[in-house]
Amino acid sequence: MNYVVNAVTQDIHTITLNAKDGANIVLTNAGAAIVALWVPDKERQLGNVVLGYENIEQYLNNDMALGATIGRHAGRIEQAQICINGAQIQLPANEGPHLLHGNFSSLLWNYEIIERADDISVIFTLHSDAGSDGFPGNVDVNVTMTFNEAHELRIDYDALSDAKTVLNLTNHSYFNLSGHPFQPIGDHLLEVKSDYYLELAEDSIPTYAKATRNSSFDFSEPQLLAHLFDKDDVQLTRGGGLDHPFHLLPQQPQIRLVEPHVGRVLTVETSYPFAVIYSGNNIDETAILTEHLQAKKQSAICFETQLAPYSHFKKRFDAELAANQRYHYTTNFRFTTL
After folding, report:
1. Less crowded by CB within 10 Å, the N or C end of the chain?
2. Which of these is catalytic: 244, 304, 312, 320?
């Protein structure tokens, strides 16, 4: 393998990791984001399977969080409020009264590259001061993205805080395995090993657990996404599709996505207990993507592996991180063919 670094501006760089067969991933330190990911189909034709902006500078103003590293908290925090050591802390709301995601995706990260024979790692690092986005604790974050000759992308999340805080990190890549990100994803088949999901309130706040079995959210067998979009289910019509946290079972892989025409397969394995599965319902159709393509709604799907969404109203505290407690989780995205 080899890599190439390009300076888009003095501060914004792209880092391309190249496999010997031509497969490659393009990363940027703007938001520690994935810009493009080229892998072969069953005919060995390379295609880009993620959505990315044509203008790399847009990753610092990334409203859709395309490919970005999300923090301090992935997803929505109800009323933008957390409670730490009995004290209620008001965070800055950015989606009505709620907080969505936080500011990690709009920051420049430092990085270093570790080159090996069969894989290359880019270690993105960020120091987040106490009070950033209102969260307590000085937090040091390492996000390591490793791409190998077997077309696997491994993301390792490591962090440490000097005070009790809330932390929930993920990557927000949008996948379309056809290699044509302007095409809808209705012909993709989705399989998820999950026993329950969290229903959403009208304002998209995750509420309470409901069993996936025999529901519209039962992906224990592969389900065509087009059929899902057509279902008359208030949980699907409310948000225009999927945007729900799924509790993952320990069977590997926990998620499998197939595009049967070109034969690409994505499997996801993670040490995180949840994945928010989001079917691109609110993609900004004015955005210009790589190769000068126009963005389209429901043209990609996200697998945001993470902890349960924090809510002191619903007594969900999995995302609390104690002072000097190590935060460490791993997600592996593997690309193969039928």
Report:
1. C
2. 304
